[in-house]
């Protein structure tokens, strides 16, 4: 079992390669969203057109229109910006907070560890979506509240992981050597322990991004998070639920967008785990 | 009752306190008067006064928290802002429905996941294995609410095999779609673990012995390998139990299932804070209690766990 990552590995694994390609296109679509909608799809995601309500997928509207005559494809492109932004921000923030608290708990041990571990356990004791609902319910709804809610329910998972890695790395001889040479705690933590923990963190983060995107779509499906008229994948489904029998495309396509994105994220996560996590033997 | 179990139960207490502290802080973060939001706007003045006195809003926060704890211990979770019913009454009325749905989902997920995992381990690398891996990747990636709507569209609205929603006075047909929707996520993770555990079991010497004795492959797989591959699978099933509460919020909403999840959604839509916080608190307590039970039952069932924790 080799560990390490190369483009050759990626080219060998067709599924992972396809997933990376899908994610690349998604990010591209999200970044260029407004331009894509104006010049290529040629529909405004917010413009209601009363003459074309419930239009099935066809030449003019590739994925049809919704109950208010808005183009479904343009709304999916627009919604990708929310999903990917929340997914990326929640991953970055919860990983950052988790690393700081996890390093502190694992490295300092003793009472610090006891208090922090108890804190992690309490946060992990909540069913995650339920706690996210509670947190976003007390905040004014919006992009920020969705990011914050997902971050607050997720960082403890990363923190517990980092704590465990730190505990084992702390005993390594190179850490002892560095400490014996008089290195400060900060230097030991950020120059010796953190870099060695990075591959495992990358694996953990990549495996969770998909879950964060699912959670964002669940929150907006429930009417929390980003509010209408801004389209999100979750709210597109909940707003058009009533038409599922007569115009299923309004519900099917946004759901496919979520599913494809999350499958791609999970496939990349699985690939990274197979390559980088020595504990895991496929 | 060994020292392990006593220790585990004692550790349960700080976790419960932590959970109540989190919900207390969330109530504090609410816009407006926390007592009013906890009690409900149409509460009669006596209840309001009682809660106010019990929490003591003019006292420092730690003392307020103690007051809040005292209320919870008495089963007082406030009243709905809209119906003015006690949240604790609502919770005890809806919980059995959620429990019934969750049990059906656990059965579906466990049987389906173990079957799928075992089949793909036995047929490793062949078409069946690949189909099963597609199902297990899909299962953890599809949004629950969308899966539910799609199943409803297909099996209830088009094929008309099953009722689209409602509880139908307890009819089993009404349970099928919600249970499948709620159980699919777990089914996928159970199938993954069951596959790798089965592959490992099949490479053990006792399996080779059983084959060498000339036992038919069926017996080898079902009698010898499967039984031993189940331990990690049971762990996953146990760990996943609490997550059914997450899925229940979404599943119940879609299928009009009158349980905790739909109750929570009603609360969210109306910004009915006592209801939302009641469900969050109750859900977390159920989740922790479930994990405690799973831990204790391992301890009782698996002698290896017992030995390890004694050391």
Strand and helix map with partners:
The complex is a heterodimer of chains A (282) and B (311).
Chain A: H1 7-12, H2 14-31, H3 33-41, H4 72-108, H5 110-125, H6 128-138, H7 143-170, H8 173-180, H9 185-221, H10 233-239, H11 249-276
Helix pairs in contact in A: 2-4, 2-11, 3-4, 4-5, 4-7, 4-9, 4-11, 5-7, 6-7, 7-9, 8-9, 9-10, 9-11, 10-11
Chain B: H1 3-29, H2 34-39, H3 45-55, H4 61-73, H5 87-122, H6 127-141, H7 144-158, H8 172-202, H9 205-212, H10 217-240, H11 244-255, H12 260-269, H13 273-301, H14 303-310
Helix pairs in contact in B: 1-13, 3-4, 5-6, 5-8, 5-10, 5-11, 6-8, 7-8, 7-11, 8-10, 8-11, 9-10, 11-12, 12-13, 13-14
Number of helices of chain B: 14
How helix-rich are the residues of chain B, as a percent range? over 70%
The counted number of beta strands of chain B is 0
- Rounded to the nearest angstrom, the distance between the terminal CA atoms of chain A is 10 Å
What shape does the CA trace of chain B take? Answer: flat
Mean of pLDDT of chain B: 82
Question: What's the total number of strands of chain A?
Answer: 0
Roughly what fraction of the amino acids of chain A lie in strands?
A: under 5%
Order of helices and strands of chain B: HHHHHHHHHHHHHH
- Largest beta-sheet characterization of chain B: none
Task: Characterize the largest beta sheet of chain A: strand count, sense, and whether it forms a barrel.
Answer: none
The helix/strand class of chain A is: mainly alpha
Low-confidence stretches of chain A: none
**Biggest interchain interface, per-side counts:** A-B, 43 and 48 residues
How would you name the oligomeric state of the polypeptide chains in this document? heterodimer
Question: Quick one: overall form of chain A?
Answer: elongated
The stretches of 5 or more residues of chain B where confidence is low (pLDDT under 50) are: none
Write down the secondary-structure element order of chain A: HHHHHHHHHHH
Over the alpha carbons, how many angstroms does the gyration radius of chain A reach?
22 Å
């Amino acid at each position: 079992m080799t560990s390490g990552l190369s483009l050759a590995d990626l080219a060998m694994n067709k599924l992972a390669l396809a997933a990376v390609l899908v994610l690349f296109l998604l990010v591209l679509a999200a970044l260029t969203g407004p331009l894509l909608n104006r010049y290529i799809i040629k529909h405004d995601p917010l413009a209601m057109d009363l003459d074309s309500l419930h239009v099935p997928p066809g030449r003019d509207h590739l994925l049809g229109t919704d109950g208010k005559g808005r183009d479904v494809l343009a709304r999916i492109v627009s919604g990708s910006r929310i999903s990917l932004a929340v997914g990326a921000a929640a991953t970055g923030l919860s990983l950052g907070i988790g690393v700081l608290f996890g390093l502190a708990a694992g490295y300092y041990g003793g009472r610090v560890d006891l208090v922090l571990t108890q804190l992690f356990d309490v946060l992990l004791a909540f069913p995650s979506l339920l706690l996210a609902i509670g947190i976003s319910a007390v905040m004014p709804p919006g992009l920020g509240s969705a990011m914050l809610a997902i971050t607050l329910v997720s960082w403890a998972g990363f923190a517990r992981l980092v704590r465990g890695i730190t505990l084992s790395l702390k005993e390594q001889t190179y850490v002892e050597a560095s400490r014996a040479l008089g290195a400060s705690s900060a230097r030991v933590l950020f120059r010796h322990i953190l870099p060695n923990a990075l591959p495992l963190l990358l694996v953990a983060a990549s495996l969770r991004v998909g879950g964060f995107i699912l959670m964002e779509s669940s929150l907006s499906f429930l009417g929390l998070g980003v509010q209408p008229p801004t389209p999100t994948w979750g709210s597109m489904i909940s707003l058009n639920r009533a038409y599922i029998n007569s115009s299923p495309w309004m519900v099917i396509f946004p759901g496919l967008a979520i599913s494809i994105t999350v499958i791609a994220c999970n496939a990349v996560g699985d690939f990274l785990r197979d390559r980088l996590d020595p504990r895991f033997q496929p | 009752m060994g020292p392990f179990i006593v220790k585990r139960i004692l550790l349960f207490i700080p976790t419960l306190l932590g959970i109540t502290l989190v919900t207390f802080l969330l109530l504090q973060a609410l816009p407006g008067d926390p007592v009013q939001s906890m009690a409900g706007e149409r509460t009669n003045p006596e209840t309001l006064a009682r809660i106010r006195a019990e929490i003591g809003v003019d006292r420092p926060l730690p003392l307020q928290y103690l007051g809040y704890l005292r209320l919870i211990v008495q089963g007082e979770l406030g009243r709905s802002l809209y119906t003015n019913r006690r949240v604790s009454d609502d919770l005890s009325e809806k919980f059995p429905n959620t429990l019934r749905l969750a049990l059906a989902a656990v059965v579906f997920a466990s049987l389906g996941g173990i079957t799928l995992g075992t089949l793909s381990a036995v047929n490793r690398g062949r078409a069946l294995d690949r189909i099963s891996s597609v199902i297990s990747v899909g299962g953890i990636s599809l949004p629950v609410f969308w899966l539910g709507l799609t199943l409803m569209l297909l099996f209830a609205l088009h094929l008309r095999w099953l009722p689209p929603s409602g509880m139908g006075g307890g009819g089993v047909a009404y349970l099928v779609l919600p249970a499948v929707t709620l159980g699919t996520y777990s089914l996928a993770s159970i199938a993954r673990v069951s596959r790798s555990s089965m592959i490992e079991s099949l490479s053990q010497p006792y399996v080779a012995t059983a084959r060498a004795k000339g036992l038919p492959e069926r017996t080898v797989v079902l009698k010898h390998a499967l039984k031993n591959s189940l331990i990690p699978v049971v762990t996953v099933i146990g760990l996943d139990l609490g997550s059914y509460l997450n899925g229940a919020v979404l599943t119940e909403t879609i299928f009009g299932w009158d349980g905790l999840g739909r109750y929570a959604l009603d609360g969210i839509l109306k910004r009915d804070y006592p209801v939302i916080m009641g469900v969050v608190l109750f859900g977390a307590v159920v989740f922790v209690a479930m994990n405690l039970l799973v831990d204790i039952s391992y301890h009782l069932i698996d002698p290896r766990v017992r030995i390890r924790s004694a050391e």
